[in-house]
Amino acid sequence: MAASGANSYAIDPGWRALWSDLGVSWPDALALAGLPGDLLSRRSQTLSSSEYFALFRALETLAKDPLLPVRIVEKYAVESFQPPLFAALCSDSFATAVERVATYKRLIGPMKLEVKTDDRSLALELRWVDGVEPPPAGLVLCELAFLLRLARIGTREPITATRVTLADDRAPLTQGLDAFFGAPVERGAAHTLVIAKRDAERPFLTVNDGLWALFEPELRRRLSDLDARATTSERVRAALLELIPSGRASLADAAKKLSSSTRTLQRRLGDEGTSFQELLDQTRKELALHYLRRTAISAGEISFLLGFSEPSSFFRAFQGWTGETPERVRHAERSA
Question: Does domain 231-335 have CATH number 1.10.1040.10?
């Protein structure tokens, strides 16, 4: 299978059969999403985030099933897994598997999986790192359900989640998904799946060190190729999406994260016709629009999340970017 680009999703040829199993016509879905009918026969089988999201929304529209995320993961056979996920089954436990998935998730699409553990639980947070267009809620739930199913396949135990959250104030919450997860899907600050630490440490019956030794070199090569194809602007943008919420989004911070000097980073961005400040302003603007349109977070809290020292600084910057106030943008979106 072809690897995805730095900001694109690899298309699985097996999707056509999967969608047929779901009762959805692949040509109809492509047409509804505004995508070419010969997509699977093309040499480069990748989609941008907006195209990928449109295709998933087309699937949701045609399937007309509130339990679609569960149906997808239950029909998606182990042999159809993307290589990074299949390789994860070679791990000794779910805790090890998700660390491997977190490392190689970018080979599937511009997503990032963060793994956090404490004495009682393992928490997984899923984020999209190529921009701020929100993914369909069904796609997020599908990804989270897929991770839980990975734990169940590896252990052959009916592992359940202790918490599931969806960071989308406007998405409907389907109670029917509770039975699959073993916990209600709730609103939250992030897209997360949490399971008990004892379950995360249960041994995988699918452990296979020899097979992992075969998978790992190829996965590392593909990840290296992916990084080599990414432009400096793309890498800076991805870094900013992580740095901005932490309040450390200076040129020096970005250069350090990318293992570059500030002078080299400025030069490479200049060669691409942009600058660090332009990328910072663009990323902050898009994040601000995302928070205003998709969450109930106050403008003051948004200013903090974007790294502004005072809300007034954020308000001035936002008006400079859009010609509107944050409140006006939020009101217009809610009234639409």
Answer: no
Cβ atoms within 10 Å, residue 198:
11
Domain range annotation of the chain: 67-221, 231-335
Going from the C-alpha of 276 to that of each of 67, 131, 181, 281, 313, the distances in angstroms are 43, 16, 42, 9, 19
Inter-axis angle of helices 276-294 and 262-271, to 10 degrees? 80
Q: Rounded to an integer, what distance in angstroms lies between the CA atom of residue 276 and that of residue 303? A: 20
Tokens encoding 328? 């006006």
**CA dist., res. 238 & res. 222, Å (int):** 18
Name residue 196's beta-bridge partners: 121
CA angle 245, 248, 251 (to 5 degrees): 125
Burial of 118 (0-12, 13-18, 19+ CB in 10 A): exposed
pLDDT, tens only, 245-265: 777 889 999 998 888 899 999
For strand 191-196 and strand 121-128, is the pairing parallel, antiparallel, or unpaired? antiparallel
Backbone phi, psi, residue 184, to 5°: -70, 145
Cβ 137 vs Cβ 187: under 8 Å: no
The token duo for 60 is 């949701």
- Report the alpha-carbon distance of residue 87 to residue 150 in Å, rounded: 11
Q: What is the pLDDT of residues 58-94, one digit of tens each?
A: 999 999 888 999 888 888 754 455 666 777 888 999 9
The whole-angstrom separation of Cα 105 and Cα 102 is 5
The owner of tokens 């069904």 is 138
Q: E strand or H helix at 163, and its extent?
A: strand 163-166
Which pTM does this prediction carry? 0.72
d(CA 181, CA 56): 21
Distances (CA, A) of 30 to 212, 252, 285: 36, 44, 31
Both structure tokens of 185: 């899907």
